[in-house]
Amino acid sequence: MSRLHFVAGNDIQLLHSGAQFFPALTAEIDQARHEIYLETYIFANDQTAVAVQAALIQAAARGVQVRVVLDWIGSDRQAAIDLTRLFNDAGVDCRCFNPWFKRGLARTHRKICVVDQQVAMVGGLNIIDDSIADDGSGIVLPSPRWDFAVRVTGPLVAHVHLEVDAQWRKLGRLNFRSRFALMRHLHADAKRGGKQITAAALVVRDNLRNRTTIQKAYLHALGTARTRAILVTPYFAPGRKFRRALISAASRGVDVVLLLGVGQFALQDAVAQSFYGRLLKAGVRIVEYRKTQLHAKVAVVDGDWATVGSSNFDGLSLFVNHEANIVIRDRDFAATLSHELEQGLADGVEIVAADVQKQAWYQHVWHGIAYLVYRGLMRIVTFGHYG
User: Fold this and answer.
1) Which neighbouring-strand residues pair with 121?
2) Which of 94, 103, 187, 255 could bond 68 through an S-S bridge, CB–CB 3.0 to 4.6 Å?
3) Claim to verify: residue 155 and residue 234 sit in the same structural domain
4) pLDDT tens readout for residues 314-347
5) Which among 93, 302, 330, 347 is annotated as catalytic?
6) Is 116 a catalytic site residue?
């Protein structure tokens, strides 16, 4: 999948944080008649997650085929094993992604649900209460986690369904011939949207067909941007190509704005801050979101290109993990998302060059060391692809 294949005729609804996402998710599960696929990085054990768990079990009890994929690391090793056993005992088919790193370092970081091949939900929200920090600390957040997903109906759902079904089958017992045939089928399906740039496209990242697809989608959007690009991520540590694309767009006069999450991981913050000086000098604006935990992975470019999904702007998301984004070409949707992002920018704190210049020398040294350590680790796990 070297380029995006857009599919027309979809209805796409933006869902803001858990207050909108979880009622929509459980409503779809409760209405399911035939089949549910759910794939997530984190499936927690809090009140919100237990409600989703109960809805899935009830669906299975009334004869719906329910298949759940959860990540072995994201859902906390033993908890993932216990939940898999609980689901399977209750009639919900459940598989852990990559237990004991048997398939390498990759994790499934995707957040996808498909119901009856009619409705798909894709975004950044894990199955966890958005008032609780998602790093295992159990800290109660000052405000609900800031995140987004989309609810999709229309022809694109078939593409999403094919991806989650393929993931499910790949986690089972497939011989080499079956895996190769599945890969060819996925490649053929990706082209069915044709060349018409209309509504929306599914863009995924894995370590076979789609190693750089999500990054290429961003690079193309930045490379053709004319007026404004707002990009949002909790973890900012992109490779050299991505950073150059941001600087190039800003140098052409595009208003490039980064809205970044901070305060969760000290090393991650230091790596991100190691880029601040050069980006600010090139005209890229940087806003730190400090109101609560920012978990959104979204962007709007020129008011007609938007994306919502699971991929961060860091080495793990862009070069290692399995990810899924929806790219939308629709001015009304972009305007809706832009409105939410403008509020996020208003709630943030803009960083200017003077803020970087007045930092103590040891802070600059720490940021540089953090970047060198991060780059070294990423070059190892990405076999040199991270720059």
Assistant:
1) 113, 151
2) 94
3) no
4) 999 999 999 999 999 999 999 999 999 999 999 9
5) 302
6) yes
